[in-house]
């Protein structure tokens, strides 16, 4: 089982760890098989991000949600692969839109092969996901289609930005919910649904996925600022350089403290200049807005934990609760 999230596996029941490890190994093998194309170059470009690794958080959520039914049901591993392929496909597209040069510590596909190849590779992964999805039945196809609609809507909302009468913070959270949380909620839904869990359990786990998904993105946004190396798989301060406002930045921009004036000026300017970017990153790291953002993250993690209360007690629920802690603690 991938442990790039920093899980303390000694805290997890050995039987559950063994089951999850076997499941994640099966997902990894199926994922690598799914990105093989008839044309070798397509296989090369599609494997680029698979080989770069990643947290595999989404497949893990599928496998954990399946623990509340039959965790070895036939559709569990394929649905986990569908979710990871969907995630990977969005990363190829995101890197083109963001003009990113790095992804997961490696050269991005768009930098290596150009925008057209990167976009088409993302489309290829969506096609492979759809092919696997067709075997899971019409209900799963509909769930995935509605999730994909939210992914696209969230990206469009982020690209367009908040309207004149929109609250920037609410706009940001709605983007996070659509762009990140919708797919993680779908992971929890697929896992529990295909495992045959009772309907109320499926609903609670879906709500958990939505909330932990928001928390997961908030923690990634904080890591983008706080990481001294390339822990996040991207160059630190990438969101700053690209002019993408995240939670700490929005707290600064909403501040009426005169001490924030210089940072506010920088956040409203072009930070592609290395010196200005370094100044903004240094000021933001030291700003009280970071603590406010961590408090927001804690609230989302607490909300995610609260949705787990109706679930049957046991190692699977305990690990989901532990994930709520990890999502917070990984930001330092």
Automatic annotation (TrEMBL):
It comes from the Bacteria. The lineage of its organism: Bacteria, Bacillati, Actinomycetota, Actinomycetes, Sporichthyales. It holds the Pfam family polyprenyl_synt. Keywords: Magnesium, Metal-binding, Transferase. Belongs to the FPP/GGPP synthase family. Gene3D superfamilies: Farnesyl Diphosphate Synthase. SUPFAM superfamilies: Terpenoid synthases. Coiled coil: none annotated. This is Polyprenyl synthetase family protein. InterPro entries: Isoprenoid_synthase_dom_sf, Polyprenyl_synt, Polyprenyl_synt_CS. It comes from Sporichthya brevicatena. Its cofactor is Mg(2+).
